[in-house]
């Protein structure tokens, strides 16, 4: 008798398996990056998913960047996390270590999702201690050196000059004066500062952390790059220690800034402006290729989700080649989708592609945010004139104490 | 006589300087809010945009913005009513209770004012979560009442201390119950104090940011200060729309304040003098 | 309310006590307990570590900076706000024409939401686009404007100025009201004795509003010390941590870097430091008023 009951239960369970017993509603949180009108396209994609999967409803919440981190953190702490959220690459380590997000390695392998379908750096940023905790969603790279063609012409500078350390310095010097500024360095305490400074270090062959995890910022390559930027800062507008990349935008748009460092995301804003602009892929010493800093977002599924299978279906949908380009405003992390997206939406797609494939991620650590805090202080110290080697030694002391 | 004339002239000059410092930022705020998004910022700053437009107001007054506005009104309104009532009860006890324990309690109330909000927000979040109150008006109202109560009590207590006890005693001798005395004598007499506390609570809750940010998760529950944050993206601020919204956000409080400032001054005076 | 109505006193007080106990005291005690544990987001099983976190924080470079900044920010803003508030109240208390309108206009900054104030002033201070520097450049021969928020030397001054701009109307209101309670006869007697405006201020006005000054300073001390919005939005505690104060470091450590235990410890320090400030002020105030009474 007992057996019959359990067989019946098993049968019922099997019957219920292929179709969901009842409709589920998934909470999806996303960063609200720009007001690019993306939400309409995104909404269309979500509607399409719901049409194809009538048993799943999706509720999308977009949150501006400055509040996103706190929102997620309080939600996870309070046991109220969404089912799926986009996580900044630099947060993923902490969420993985905290066991707040689900290990997706098996699901991804089963679904045939592999590293070669995505930008390598994006995939790696979702890997923590050999397990995959997120699906790469979108990417971008800091920095592209955007320039004001008219100011370059007036100073007789060729845009190719901007690609080398020496050329950039000479160009910046020529274009500074008369209320104009050569180069829009910025140094407020934010990730954009870290990304740009890292890129100078990476391009000079330096690293933030060495392969053994110890701080490498006080190694010669990094210190050299820091000293270079310190010198370059004399051609920047006043007050870079409180300036963000966004503050520099207004200066670039009113024609008083010759060169500015941004990700490719800045292109739509520039396209709608009156400025005659162009860009090159970052800056490196003569003979080396510029190396950018990877940025972007991964999709993560939260442990607290009660609808993991449904969530996984939605995540696969979002990163698929046909959809990925419609739901991001950075660059799709899916390389095929990225090619289509760049060709349709960005100037110089091949150039961007090359820079993306060459970019390095920021340290993949659960305590990245603490490391970044020390880095910000280091970069501010250097930009305000502290000796680069001394500042870097102090910073490395603090970073090595964290690990 | 001559000296007092120079004094008056100096006073006027002093007031004009202070007035300039106070008002210039407001002028600038309005100026930026009227600048078309396509007009680049000039260096040095232009005091007035070349071709002023109301476009920023139009785009800032989105449907969400109206929702935020309504939410702010509900949350602030309820907080004002509840805080004022509770503070009035409490302040009355503190001034008329004649209990030794009360002075200890009063100390505890003042101490509570010193707690840093950033340090207590996660425990409060967890409580709200366990009561299933997250993303609700109730969660915000409860927090706002709690954080504004200490100062509200302090202000009202100062006001009630000044009221003559003789009226209440006379009424009690005439056989009025304590509740009646409170309702018919204390409340009407304390009205200026009540209004000033109401304005204080309105100003604080209308601009509260941290709790609103943490406890609301969907667009239809957000309040204005959090909504304003939407104009600050990961890589920059849209100044024109932000300033336009700021002007609109400030409007209701300014209006209320101008109508009630006479009472507010009176109430604060009492609170301060007898504090 | 009389002695036999004490039940009513407790009844009236009950909702307040419950709310404060649940929403302020319970979380704060929780924070206090947490400060003895190694709690962080990435460490779900915190261990009891005693004063370890306290030791770590005291030894850090940030702690002494934050302590110094907090004192500077609080004392600076409180003194300036009260001086400006008092002076404005004096100026507005002379029966000059149009002073009602001025009083109303002067209150505007107090009403402006903190988030908006901070963004507005951040933009005002912008070295290229801001109004402050455009005036400096236009009115003087200065070639380059000052980057107020971008230098560790000037950032604190700049944020204090903003805080004073926003906070002084509150002090002004209270002083204005207090000044109206100054005894007219005493003032007239002083005038007859030949006392100038300054002597009248020292001998008559200040002594008769001294209790208001005391309360006003304690209140602004507490509100300023815990004020988060302005500094967070204007500088995020920078540059080079030169404006990091207790509320911003608590927020940044907890929410920005996921280190809840350390944030809790900073929270406890924060209350200690604020209490010391309030106590110090009370002592100073008492000794000076005693001296005045005996002299």
Automatic annotation (TrEMBL), chain A:
<feature type="signal peptide">
    <location>
        <begin position="1"/>
        <end position="21"/>
    </location>
</feature>
<keyword id="KW-0732">Signal</keyword>
<dbReference type="GO" id="GO:0042597">
    <property type="term" value="C:periplasmic space"/>
</dbReference>
<protein>
    <submittedName>
        <fullName>Multiple sugar transport system substrate-binding protein</fullName>
    </submittedName>
</protein>
<dbReference type="InterPro" id="IPR050490">
    <property type="entry name" value="Bact_solute-bd_prot1"/>
</dbReference>
<dbReference type="InterPro" id="IPR006059">
    <property type="entry name" value="SBP"/>
</dbReference>
<keyword id="KW-0762">Sugar transport</keyword>
<comment type="similarity">
    <text>Belongs to the bacterial solute-binding protein 1 family.</text>
</comment>
<keyword id="KW-0813">Transport</keyword>
<dbReference type="Pfam" id="PF01547">
    <property type="entry name" value="SBP_bac_1"/>
</dbReference>
UniProtKB/TrEMBL annotation, chain B:
<feature type="transmembrane region" description="Helical">
    <location>
        <begin position="68"/>
        <end position="92"/>
    </location>
</feature>
<keyword id="KW-1003">Cell membrane</keyword>
<keyword id="KW-0813">Transport</keyword>
<protein>
    <submittedName>
        <fullName>Multiple sugar transport system permease protein</fullName>
    </submittedName>
</protein>
<dbReference type="InterPro" id="IPR035906">
    <property type="entry name" value="MetI-like_sf"/>
</dbReference>
<dbReference type="GO" id="GO:0055085">
    <property type="term" value="P:transmembrane transport"/>
</dbReference>
<keyword id="KW-0762">Sugar transport</keyword>
<keyword id="KW-0472">Membrane</keyword>
<keyword id="KW-0812">Transmembrane</keyword>
<keyword id="KW-1133">Transmembrane helix</keyword>
<dbReference type="Pfam" id="PF00528">
    <property type="entry name" value="BPD_transp_1"/>
</dbReference>
<dbReference type="InterPro" id="IPR050901">
    <property type="entry name" value="BP-dep_ABC_trans_perm"/>
</dbReference>
<feature type="transmembrane region" description="Helical">
    <location>
        <begin position="137"/>
        <end position="156"/>
    </location>
</feature>
<dbReference type="GO" id="GO:0005886">
    <property type="term" value="C:plasma membrane"/>
</dbReference>
<comment type="similarity">
    <text>Belongs to the binding-protein-dependent transport system permease family.</text>
</comment>
From TrEMBL, chain C:
<keyword id="KW-0813">Transport</keyword>
<feature type="transmembrane region" description="Helical">
    <location>
        <begin position="104"/>
        <end position="125"/>
    </location>
</feature>
<keyword id="KW-1003">Cell membrane</keyword>
<keyword id="KW-0762">Sugar transport</keyword>
<dbReference type="InterPro" id="IPR035906">
    <property type="entry name" value="MetI-like_sf"/>
</dbReference>
<dbReference type="GO" id="GO:0005886">
    <property type="term" value="C:plasma membrane"/>
</dbReference>
<dbReference type="GO" id="GO:0055085">
    <property type="term" value="P:transmembrane transport"/>
</dbReference>
<feature type="transmembrane region" description="Helical">
    <location>
        <begin position="7"/>
        <end position="26"/>
    </location>
</feature>
<comment type="similarity">
    <text>Belongs to the binding-protein-dependent transport system permease family.</text>
</comment>
<keyword id="KW-0472">Membrane</keyword>
<dbReference type="InterPro" id="IPR000515">
    <property type="entry name" value="MetI-like"/>
</dbReference>
<protein>
    <submittedName>
        <fullName>Multiple sugar transport system permease protein</fullName>
    </submittedName>
</protein>
<feature type="transmembrane region" description="Helical">
    <location>
        <begin position="263"/>
        <end position="284"/>
    </location>
</feature>
<feature type="domain" description="ABC transmembrane type-1">
    <location>
        <begin position="67"/>
        <end position="281"/>
    </location>
</feature>
<keyword id="KW-0812">Transmembrane</keyword>
